[in-house]
Amino acid sequence: MVLPTAPPASLSVSQILTEFSIAPATQKRLSNDLFPLVNGTAGATCSLAASFSGTSAPRLYVATSEAGQTASSTNGLTWTAGGTLPSGPTWKAVTVNNTTGLFVAVGDSGAASSTNGNTWTARTIASSGWSSVTCNPNTGVFVAVGAGYESAASSTDGITWIVRTLPTAAFAWSSVTVNSTTGVFFAVAQASSRGATSTDGITWTLSTMPTHAQWFSVACNSTTGIFVAIATNNTDIAARSTDGITWSQTQPPSATWRSVTCNPTTTRFVAIAFFGGAAVSTDGWSWFPYAFPTTGPWSAVTVNQTTGLFVVVGTGDTRAVTSTDSVTWLRNSNLPSSAFWNSVTSQY
């Protein structure tokens, strides 16, 4: 049976049986015999609530480049060139509100939003070198952090932004994530041993990371509550926390780690290295290396929590690699143009 791509709130008995390619005469008998009392009417072809295991529309992967190119994919494998982000900023990161489907991108001097990953509208945000953005789908709150000494910003709709103050003058806040179960945001600074937590994206509290390192990317498992951060200059340093406040150092395989994500359905963290390869952990403590089919350089990883497909994008090429299990990686995905693809996100 092929379900409609955008099912209505309800389907009639006849429509449901038609989806199974059942002939009209048989439909009538089945409707009378098997559905004798639908909404209390004997033998009628009445409205039944349709229940679907899938989603009502394709779930998009969206990738962005520094220069503002965008690309989208419904399966992480076949990509279509999208529109362009507004001119001006050097674009750094993209995220999506998985409740409303709104995509938001941030750059060094701007922000933009899109309902389809293709058509983008510029949004006003203070110029502060924005480098990372995330969203809590339960509250709709977006949070961005930037390279300014105390730079953060929040938005309840991805359109109107208010600048917030981080608790310390750490240079280059590089990454932000959220535990969508508890609502705790965590941001990490690249050039210090500092982090910060917030329950609302407005008021922030200082955290201390276990060592001075160039912390570059952070992710959270919203099922277990575990946060993981990775560093770029210390090739064998990562950090783990259960609350975003108290952190312990861990040791992934030696590599220049660039980006980390987590699928809370399988509790798997995946970190990707700048020059190829992944490290996988289910608890943030023990990490296991897996090879890529090509060397990179790679810049960002995301995962679709419904399908479990990981997608990695890279710089200066149309390259991308994918994995359904985080163990076997395939170069079976090509972006539509050669660009500095530096961020990717997924609806689920």
Structure write-up:
The chain has 348 residues and is mainly β. It has 2 domains: 40 residues, no CATH class; 286 residues, Neuraminidase (6 Propeller). It contains 2 helices and 30 strands. A 6-stranded antiparallel beta sheet has the order 7-6-5-30-29-28, with no helix packed on it. Strand 8 and strand 9 form a beta hairpin. The protein is globular and about 40 Å long. The two termini are 22 Å apart.
Describe the secondary-structure layout.
Blueprint: E1 10-12, H1 13-19, H2 24-34, E2 37-38, E3 41-42, E4 47-49, E5 61-65, E6 69-73, E7 80-84, E8 91-96, E9 103-107, E10 110-114, E11 121-123, E12 130-136, E13 141-146, E14 151-155, E15 162-165, E16 173-179, E17 184-189, E18 192-198, E19 205-213, E20 215-221, E21 226-231, E22 238-241, E23 248-250, E24 257-263, E25 268-273, E26 278-281, E27 288-290, E28 298-303, E29 310-323, E30 330-346
Antiparallel strand pairs: 1-4, 2-3, 5-6, 5-30, 6-7, 8-9, 9-10, 10-11, 12-13, 13-14, 14-15, 16-17, 17-18, 18-19, 20-21, 21-22, 22-23, 24-25, 25-26, 26-27, 28-29, 29-30
Helix pairs in contact: 1-2
